[in-house]
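Quick check before the chapter quiz. The format below is the same one you will see on the exam, so make sure you can read both the input and the output lines.
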Amino acid sequence: MVVEKKYDLTIIGGGAAGLASAIRAGELNMDRIALIDSPPYVGKMLGGILPQCIHPGFGLHYFKEDLTGPEFAYRLIERLDKLDIDIFRDTYAYDMKATKDYCKIMTVNSSGITRILSRTVICATGARERNIFEIGVVGSRPAGIFTAGEAQALMDLFGVMPGRNIVIIGSGDIGLIMARRFALEGANVKAVIELMPWPGGLTRNVVQCLEDFNIPLLLSHIALRVLGKNRVEGIEIARVDESLKPIDGTEKIIKCDTIIVSAGIVPRIDLLEKVGALIDKTTNGPIVNDFLETSVPNIFAAGNVLVINDLVDYAAEQGEIAAESAAYIIHGGRIPHKNPIKIVLGKNVRLAVPQLLTGIRDTYIYIRVKKPMKNVYLYLNEIDIKIKLISIIPSELIRIFLRKEEISRIGNKILNISILG
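Here is the expected output.
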């Protein structure tokens, strides 16, 4: 038997973005709010990935304090518990369809199947890690290969040490943090291998996790082949040229018993694709306007499913914006969809979110650059804005705030964002 329930707002995902959006929706006096969460590990813990992130560095913007991941999650859960919100724990949303009046969400848990009809939806489903097969590493499939998130969960939630002699492929933030974690537990981190000529993680993590522990960072290197049959025995690497192709004669083997893959994360857009939302190829997330509304009316996105955030604070911030947008709809507001202002990616800009502007609200724009640069300017020529940037790198989002009065000055329905010296 399928149970049917109706809500004004349904939030899919119980990580930072989902929790923040549920709290903000409750504070805005929205009735009939549901939160659906399918935790990534055993148990009914809310917080998404936060419970396994026992290192500090969270909340500096959102809470104005330096917190660990569990502390950040606890702060949100504590506020959530005071609100009248239906929480579906250990529940998987497997299908979503939009109709004229409702979005239909099909969910399943140990109690059975529930059909949820919701006037508005916030998709906060987060992201997944890339695996070793997605980055072109060949070889056998021995024991001892983990993604950085898997290794983090094993160590910080279950107390299991994955290995002793470690090589990390990719210099994303989780990989850098795990390099330090392994070193603190007495493992020998032999190298962090990075394809690009610059690190993939935040500068503070490069310094605190690698340099402070004398862990080698091999930039412009590629992992070619896994060695070993039953257990990892080593990995073959090589230097790459400017076109990121291996240079003949530079191959070498690093002996190790464990390989950690930290090759970035990808938005989990399965439900958004099923409902027909348009996807931006530069972000791999949905195309949204300044209400964080997708191309499907009344369906919003926030957090890492929208754009990969380097700070959890930004994910929570986006959750709040999405909740305010859903409340705007429920309380009788209308989001204009005709003739939006389109954001155009200019020189040295790799992505920008939101991609469209209605011009009727203040908005944050999140920008990521193509390469590291110093002493440059961010130009918004259509509204005569020029912002000095001392140092920027691809792994750190640039976040700018625009008032609706500034946006209203755009006459040609295009906002070009460029970064120039």
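If your answer matched, good. The first strand starts at residue 3 and ends at 12.
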